[in-house]
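Module 6 notes. Inverse folding takes a fixed backbone as the condition and produces residue identities as the prediction. Think of it as a translation problem where the source language is geometry and the target language is the twenty amino acids. Below is one complete input and output pair. Work through it position by position during the lab.
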């Protein structure tokens, strides 16, 4: 079994805790499924195109060899297991902890971050990974913060906690603990700033990857409860 597949299995182990009575995460499954499908419709074509362009790629040494549309099966699973785990973390935090992020702070934080991300994306327009990721993520964050302030306050806490497993998983994928990276990057297509072995762009890509299904799950479940 490939190392990348083991990472997916480890990440998806959160499903074993989904039936905790206080969280009752299973009740969100139908809405989360829609969020994950939407994510796949966005990120899988994006990932496939970037792979074909050589912006990033995958080391066959750590894969099982099965691929579709230029992406290894492990990468397809990544777009299920990682969003699933993040949304799980979101609802665990809501169930067990009072959100410590003040609405005013959250509002200022996301507005500033949106503008900063947009500015960096425009400045580094020649680096494809940087430009595309930053200029897509910035308006999404800005609009969510404008119209869904309460949700974004909750998500601030979620993303802060999720950053810990993100660093661990991405460090493994980018070669911190292996002879060669599982996922390699063409540094001419990013601005070559790294957190350890992780390209800084990955933090923004990951942010968009996680906020999208979390919001969709939140929105659809809220609508469902309102009608019940």
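Target side of the pair, the amino acids:
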């Amino acid at each position: 079994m490939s190392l990348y597949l083991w990472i997916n299995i480890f990440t998806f182990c959160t499903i074993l805790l989904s039936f905790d009575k206080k969280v009752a995460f299973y009740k969100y499954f139908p809405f989360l499924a829609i969020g994950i499908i939407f994510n796949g419709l966005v990120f899988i074509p994006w990932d496939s195109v970037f792979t074909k362009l050589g912006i990033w790629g995958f080391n066959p040494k750590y894969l099982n060899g099965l691929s579709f549309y230029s992406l290894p099966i492990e990468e397809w699973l990544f777009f299920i297991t990682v969003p699933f785990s993040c949304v799980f973390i979101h609802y665990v935090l809501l169930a067990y902890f009072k959100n410590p992020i003040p609405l005013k702070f959250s509002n200022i934080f996301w507005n500033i971050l949106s503008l900063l991300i947009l500015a960096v994306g425009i400045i580094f327009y020649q680096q494809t990974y940087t430009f595309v990721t930053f200029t897509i993520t910035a308006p999404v964050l800005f609009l969510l913060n404008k119209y869904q302030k309460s949700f974004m306050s909750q998500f601030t806490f979620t993303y802060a906690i999720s950053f810990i497993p993100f660093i661990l998983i991405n460090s493994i994928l980018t070669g911190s603990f292996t002879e060669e990276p599982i996922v390699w990057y063409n540094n001419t297509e990013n601005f070559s700033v790294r957190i350890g072995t992780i390209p800084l762009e990955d933090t923004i890509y990951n942010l968009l990857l996680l906020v999208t299904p979390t919001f969709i799950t939140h929105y659809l479940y809220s609508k469902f409860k309102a009608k019940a």
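Reference fact for the lab report: The chain has one domain: 3-227.
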